[in-house]
Specification:
By secondary structure, the protein is mainly beta. It has a domain of about 100 residues. Strands 1, 2, 3, 4, 5, 6, 7, 8 and 9 form a 9-stranded parallel β-sheet that branches.
């Protein structure tokens, strides 16, 4: 009588976003962050961020990037650069200098943003390609030749 109808065509629940790596306070890093997972930045980071997952810029974090690209971005520290994300949250201590392209956007009272906000129905994060996909281990050439001998005619 009070049962919910069972529907087997329901979409799978969204993947839980969590932090899997941390750049600690007092650490300065210059480079590129890409792949899948979640990262929390409490130190200073300069470079490129293109991540399938979550990026958290903590209160002590300072990020300088041309364009931070990730599924979700939470800013409680400082970001100098554009942000492209499905979801962006700027906390009360967060500061962003750059343009933002998002599907969902929220700020707390006291948050700072100097730039333009563009909201889209769907954001293309441009995270596809071999450099952003998990890599298969490469076989040693000698082992590969043993496994697949070729005869010359």
């Amino acid at each position: 009588m009070f049962k919910r109808p069972t529907n087997t065509n329901q979409p799978a629940p969204a993947q839980i976003e969590r932090v899997t790596s941390v750049l600690g306070e007092g650490i300065s890093w210059h480079g590129r962050i890409s792949g899948r997972g979640g990262v929390r930045l409490e130190g200073i980071f300069e470079g490129e961020i293109a991540l399938h997952g979550l990026v958290v810029v903590g209160e002590t974090g300072k990020v300088t990037c041309d364009n931070v690209r990730a599924n979700s971005v939470i800013v409680a520290g400082a970001v100098h650069g554009n942000i492209t994300a499905d979801k962006l949250e700027i906390r009360s201590t967060g500061r962003v200098w750059g343009n933002v392209v998002v599907s969902a956007f929220s700020t707390e009272e006291g948050a700072f943003l100097r730039g333009q906000v563009t909201m889209e129905d769907q954001v293309d994060l441009q995270l596809e390609g071999p450099e952003y996909e998990p890599q298969e281990p490469a076989q040693d050439d000698a082992q590969s030749q043993q496994d697949n001998p070729q005869t010359e005619s």
